[in-house]
Amino acid sequence: MSVSTRTRTTAGTGPSAGPAGPGVPWVLVDSWTMTRRELAHWARQPVQMVVGLVFPVMLLLMFGFLVGGGRGIDGEYVEFLVPGMLALTMAFGLESTMTAVTQDLGKGVIDRFRAMPMSSAAVLVGRSAADMLQSAVGLAVLAGVGLLLGWRWHGSPAAALLAFALLLLLRFAMLWIGIFLGMVAGRPEMVQAVQILVWPVGFLSNAFATPEAMPGWLGTVVEWNPMSATATSVRDLFDNPAAAGESWAGDHAALLAVGWPVLLLAVFFPLAVARFRGLST
Q1: CA-CA-CA-CA torsion for 197, 199, 203, 207, nearest 10 degrees?
Q2: Which residues contact 102 (CB under 8 A, 6 or more apart)?
Q3: Average pLDDT, 10 consecutive residues per value, the chain (281 residues)
């Protein structure tokens, strides 16, 4: 049932308006409608989708075969690199989320949705659901390429599933940062400014090298990076070579791999919701 053809009795429109009758079922219907809208973009813009999937693969091939690395790695470098690239890809997904939000804002799409008799939460839920589906596809593609390059996980299937769950948890946290920053920026041009910050932070992790191979102060910063915590935990769950850190952050990477995303969600989820409610008010 389309939100454009559904008749309701509401007290108003916009973020304060709610659907008539039971709230939760209509929120789910509206959210699924918005999710299908985002997924329809995949069919209309296949090149953009393909580029988003291929770019992490190019990074994996570049660092695995052209740049090289592996100082301080006890084992095959590809088995160290692939989990790091999986974590890095989840973090870099922030940019695609921010770009989509700023494009919708620039075209006035979000304002039109807010004026319709639909749940205001559906816009954000649909955006996040579509991005998580795209991230799951991206993980599958990158993991498949890793398998072709010789990467293997040696742990149990349950441990592997938990590793992918941690990766998606990181993506979910970064997604809400992207939604918030997209609404703050308001213009696609501002995405470039965010990229200037995201890329150094992303590479300032143990995705490509161990902290022990870096200067002492830099290694400490790297170990406390949220992406490093996720990468280390994922390597442990895959039973792949890991950075043999002796710091608190290195010894408690699993705790930080959950704690960092939860903390980021606790900060940016309410900020994104509040910013969305305050648009055009």
Answers
A1: 130
A2: 182, 185, 186, 187, 188, 190, 191
A3: 42 40 61 70 67 73 62 76 92 86 79 69 83 92 93 92 97 93 78 76 84 81 92 94 75 94 96 82 53
Q: What is the DSSP string of 117-150?
A: SS-THHHHHHHHHHHHHHHHHHHHHHHHHHHHHT
Residue 208 token pair: 């490509």
If you search the block for the tokens 């290195």, which residue do you land on? 250
How many other β-carbons are positioned within 10 Å of the β-carbon of residue 125?
Answer: 18
Tell the burial category of 233 from Cβ atoms under 10 Å away from its Cβ (0-12, 13-18, 19+): buried
**How far apart are alpha carbons 20 and 127 in whole angstroms?**
23
Which of 142, 200, 198 shows the shortest CA–CA distance to 168? 142
From residue 97, give the alpha-carbon distance in Å to each of 62, 89, 130, 221.
Answer: 25, 13, 10, 26
Q: Which two tokens stand for residue 50?
A: 């393909």
The whole-angstrom separation of Cα 31 and Cα 263 is: 25
DSSP labels, 43-102: HH-HHHHHHHHHHHHHHHHIIIIII---TT-SS-HHHHHHHHHHHHHHHHHHHHHHHHHH
pTM value is 0.80
Diameter over CA atoms, the chain: 65
CA distance 159 to 245: 21
